[in-house]
Design goal:
The chain is an all-alpha fold and 334 residues long. It contains 17 helices and no strands.
């Protein structure tokens, strides 16, 4: 038990250090009105989905850190600038940029070179398709369930994240800050950022610790590993030589892909079978990943009910995409 607590503390300190820095930096940028000026990049998406202009600003933040962006959403919701439904759709939209960021940092840099152009390309396409499906769902559901005036009704206090962070009118803050030196403005923004993010950060850190400990405990007890991968491997007629890469993939996708790559290149497994292995492995890997990473992140920011719902929906979309591809592959192979 002591080892679990120590590991939980290590994971929490490591993650929360990054979170604190990101929140502090984004808080300063918010106070300086930087994100408000950049929000035009995502305003078309917010407009189509009937989300307020503030959602466009958090979408820009999510390009660097989805957790920091969701924290801003949670804070705006707590302050009454976003409704529960607006915050929910905004959080889903903020999960989209990571798929496109990983296209360059993971798919093109690692997956395609290891698995080959065809298998790696299809794998990358499936990942991008998952992100696009989430985005389309937000656009469609937003237009359906959010009032059409929500984007326009984002009054000056809502259209500017800086105004929401400081509680003052953005224009007045801009005018008064013009009389301050540049260094003074940065100092004032830093102080406001620390004050504004303090309570939110402490809540996130506390809940993150609890959820991380729970997941580690369940993993230590073997509950998360109780599913029988071999049964599914036999059901889908996966070649015996791929059972080890499949099992490893569930625990570590990179390691599993590394083991699977040589089998494809040496002709030990067809490209179609390799894709089937990856899809079957994903059916196990995605829920485990959600429990280990998404659950602590979302519940610590949005609370148990909303956070758990976001995890379930996000994971379900990813799983359904893989199941659809798996069924297509099984039909194609007869």
């Amino acid at each position: 038990m002591l080892d679990l607590i120590v590991q939980t503390l290590e994971d929490t300190v490591s993650t929360m250090t990054t979170v604190f820095l990101m929140l502090f930096i984004t808080g300063i940028m918010t106070e300086m009105g930087i994100f408000q000026r950049l929000s035009y990049l995502a305003k078309p998406l917010a407009s189509i989905s009937h989300l307020p202009a503030a959602a466009a600003s958090t979408f820009v933040i999510s390009l660097g850190s989805a957790l920091a962006a969701n924290t801003m959403i949670a804070r705006m919701k707590d302050e009454g600038h976003l409704s529960e439904r607006q915050a929910f759709f905004s959080a889903i939209m903020n999960s989209v940029p990571v798929y496109f960021r990983e296209l360059f940092t993971y798919q093109l840099a690692f997956v395609i070179p290891v698995l080959g152009i065809f298998v790696g390309g299809v794998y990358a396409f499936i990942s991008i398709a998952t992100g696009l499906i989430k985005l389309v769902l937000v656009l469609v559901l937003g237009r359906t369930y959010l009032p059409g005036s929500s984007a326009a009704s984002a009054a000056p206090a809502v259209s500017s994240l800086s105004a929401m962070s400081s509680g003052d009118d953005f224009t007045s803050a801009a005018v008064s800050s013009a009389h301050l030196s540049k260094a003074g403005r940065y100092k004032e923004a830093a102080i406001k950022s620390l004050k504004g993010q303090r309570r939110m950060f402490l809540r996130i850190a506390g809940l993150y610790f609890v959820m991380t400990f729970l997941v580690l405990y369940l993993s230590e007890e073997g509950i998360l590993q109780s599913l029988d991968v071999l049964t599914f491997a036999n059901f889908f007629s996966i070649p015996p030589e791929t059972v080890i890469p499949l099992t490893v993939y569930v625990a570590s996708p990179k390691a599993g892909i590394t083991l699977l790559g040589p089998l494809i290149q040496n002709g030990g497994i067809t490209e179609t079978k390799a894709l089937i292995v990856l899809m079957v492995g994903s059916l196990f890997m995605l829920p485990f990943y959600s429990l280990r990473s998404l659950l602590p992140n979302y519940t610590s920011v949005f609370g148990m009910k909303t956070g758990l719902t976001l995890v379930i929906i996000s994971t379900s979309i990813s799983v359904l995409v893989r199941v659809s591809v798996l069924l297509i592959l099984l039909v194609a192979t007869g």
